[in-house]
Amino acid sequence: MNWLSDKGLIWIYRNYEDCSGCRRCEIACSLKHEGKIWPEASRVRVFMLVPGIEVPHLCVQCYDYPCVEACPVGALSTSKETGAVLTDKDKCIACGKCIEVCPGKVPFIHPTENYAVICDLCGGDPECVKACGKGGWNALQLIRRWGNELDIKLYAKTPEKITKDLTAKLYGEEVAEGV
Amino acid sequence: MRGYAGKFLEVDLSSENIKEIKIGEDVLRQYIGGRGLAAKILWDRLGKQWEDVDPLGPENMLLVLTGPLTGFMPGGRICISGKSPQCNGIVGSTVGGEFPIELKCAGYDGIIFTGVSEKPVYLFIKDSDVDLKDAGHLWGKNARETVLTLIKEWRRDFESRYSRRGLLKEPAMLYIGPAGERMCRTAAVTHKWAHAAGYGGYGAVMGSKKLKAIVVKGTGPLPDVHDMERTVEIHNKIVDAGLRMDLFRRWGTASAGYSTGAESSSEPIMNWQEEWHNEESFGVNEFERFWVKRFWGDYGCPITCLKVAVIKSGPFKGAVTDNPDYENQAYLGTNLGIFKPEGNIYLTALADDLGFCGIQIGNLLGFAAELYQRGILTREDLGGIELKWGDAEAFAALMKLIAERKGIGDILAEGTYRAALKISEIKGVDTLQYAVVSKGIGIGAHGIRSEKDYPHYVSYACSVQGGDHTSVAYIPIDHGGSELAAMIYDSGVFCMFTFFSPETQNLLWDLLESVTGWKITPEEWYNTSARRILHIQRAALLLGGPDIRWNPKIHDDVPKRWYEPLSKGPFSGKAVDGKRMRESINEYYRAVGWDENGVPTSEELRRLGLDDVDEKLEEIRRSLR
User: DSSP 3-state assignment of B336?
Assistant: First the structure.
């Protein structure tokens, strides 16, 4: 591993403990992509399975892109510049294969359209990160990555799993048991 | 219509009939939503027989209403209303969270409940799929368990129904705890474990209807607006104004637990026997030791003034709540003689879990403790509890008795005012003098004796929401801190904290226009729309009934306690002056168009087209002559 290499790839680092649950990331994302405030169509969605335990859930860009591999119609591709997964809305048949193979169950079918919704990193300047940084919460931070690290895929977890671990950490094991 | 989803749900719990209804644009333009619309709906449907409607009977209604600005103004809230079992009038009681956003995204501006269910139920909404579900397994459950159970059940259901479409976020829910189920008049309608629509006692109304919860998932966008570009532009300016509230963002209201005592001498201490303390152990820095989240907020809020507090060791281990915010610090802290965070966090978490309003239950516990201090209530009366100031565990034990309506708890569950009447009767002692309430509603934790806090002489005496510290009477009436200004954020419906900066107060009317397309000027608001809401609320309050009625000559006043001088701190010796109080009240009456007895005048009501209110108030005028 070359700790100093900089291929210009970016990643949205997520620090769940610092998420205020304000969901300004959802507002910023859905305004950018949908022109509306639309929580369930936002590419980043904040789950709150336990009050006070908020989990911003979005694509991690796995090194081996299982979703892209699994797509039966070639609707998913990766951006060379950013490493983001891009959806070709016209090709996508909303079959759900990408959701099935995603270790974090991150993609979802658009609430009213027939295509898979996946974070496209806004072409390199993500609106969610700007909204989060502006408020000083910094739960989402734009950082450089070295390459296609294996470790990054480990962040692709379901909201349930992240919630359980975070509840234990913030509220203690006893509270987490009830989750 | 822009900014509105365009339809409301009407749910008759007696017949289990659910229908969609529309409300005309003329009504919405005048009453906006939330509190204003609640006043209009309640008056139209129940006004004629108002004094006969039992707030806890099947004829009362429960309203759950958003407004056009909900979601577009940062910091969305929802308004709960109905005939209040505390003041027997109308209270617009709001709570922040994601519920109103989910509801609008499901396609509804609000829900109107009528009747009562035979068995415990909850309402479930997923977009246009609306159904009453059995809540037998939830009845009796506290807040923590209710929320986790419902989220688990509905996530499992969503996953089985929509697995190919991927995960949906969890639904949002409003619910009651055991206190609401047992119709304690101090029960709140609650959300997110630690959020409550407390004033008004609508948790008891939900309980009377056997409605345990309302669960909603909306997958659509917020409604279309008149001018989206302009809406986003103003929205962003308001966000920036919120982000500039540096200290407030970091401390929330949790710094006030110390400063309201030490600086302004207006904090309830031991049932308001004092309002000054200088206990550094109650400083925000001491509370920070328990914060696991330094910013916590509701949908779209830039300020995120809430914090999450957790107790990880010791006798109160496992308590989770917000900051606590100032009101809970004061009422479940200093008002009970508690000056350390641990006991205060514990009692706040317990109140949340049982489904109490922290203010109302703290007011009630303080009242009970003073009766114990004075030997009016004994250890035997209290079921063996030694209710000593500062003993968090003793207060917890009594809080549980109240939620269960066991022993003395059954009397106290009627709230401070009604309990005082009852205990006075049983003991043959006037205990009303120790009840710090206005129109049956425990007064918010901001006293007026030192005159260093924001409320003034008329604030609680003339408010149409009694002791509600978020809706205080004020002169001039078009001031940003007046009750008529409160009506815009309660009808909007959005958080008052996003309304603090003068910049936001100016932008608000532009935002309302860009969202709805209606050009409503502040002048129009303060002279007509807000006046209509005020007068309807005042009329309902004066009519009251069936168990309690208010006489403005007696009840437009502050508690007896506040006529006693403060005896500690830099403002010791200060008390409310009776002559000045009557003069201030008369000045307020004139400013809002009420006669010398505090009844809205015929001329004022006719000017606003409220002829039916005028006719109904004629009997009140006659009785006061």
Answer: helix
Structure tokens at B17: 């009939």
How much is the ipTM here? 0.97
A164 touches chain B (CB under 8 A): no
Quote the CA–CA distance of B267 and B283 in Å, as a whole number: 14
Question: Which three-class secondary structure string do you get for B527-593?
Answer: HHHHHHHHHHHHHHHHHCCCCCCCCHHHHCCCCHHHHCCCCCCCCCCCCCCHHHHHHHHHHHHHHHC
CA angle, corner B387, sides to B385 and B390, nearest 5?
Answer: 135
In chain A, residues 12-51 whose CB comes closer than 8 Å to chain B:
17-18, 20-24, 27, 30-31, 34-41, 45-51
Q: Looking at CA atoms only, how far is residue A126 from chain B in angstroms?
A: 17
Alpha-carbon gap, residue B26 to B34, rounded angstroms: 16
Q: How confident is the model at residue B539 (pLDDT cuts 50, 70, 90)?
A: very high
> In 10 A of CB B127, how many CB atoms?
15
Q: Which residues contact B347 (CB under 8 A, 6 or more apart)?
A: B332, B333, B336, B338, B362, B392, B395, B396, B399
A86 touches chain B (CB under 8 A): no
Q: From A175, which residue of chain B is nearest by alpha-carbon distance? A: B318
Joined tokens for residue B61: 């209604």
Spell out the alpha helix ranges (H) of B438-550: 457-461, 483-492, 502-516, 522-524, 530-543
Q: Report yes or no: B338 and B286 within 8 Å, Cβ to Cβ.
A: no
CB contact under 8 A, A96 and B301: no
Rounded Cα–Cα distance for residues B493 and B26 (Å): 18
pLDDT tens for B207-256 read 999 999 999 999 999 999 999 999 999 999 999 999 999 999 999 999 99
* Closest residue by Cα to residue B510 from B241, B227, B299, B303: B227
Length, in residues, of chain A: 179
Considering only the beta carbons, identify the residue of B101, B148, B295 that sits closest to A20: B295
Q: Are B234 and B510 in contact (CB under 8 A)?
A: yes
- The number of C-beta contacts closer than 8 angstroms across A and B is 138
The answer to whether B58 and B205 are in contact (CB under 8 A) is no
pLDDT in tens, A65-114: 999 999 999 999 999 889 999 999 999 999 999 999 999 999 999 999 99
Q: Could A178 and B145 be called an inter-chain contact, meaning their C-beta atoms sit closer than 8 Å?
A: yes
On whether any CB of chain B is under 8 Å from the CB of A95, the answer is yes
Q: Do A41 and B165 touch (CB under 8 A)?
A: no
- The amino acid sitting at B88 is N
Residues 6+ apart with CB under 8 A from A115: A75, A87, A89, A92, A94, A109
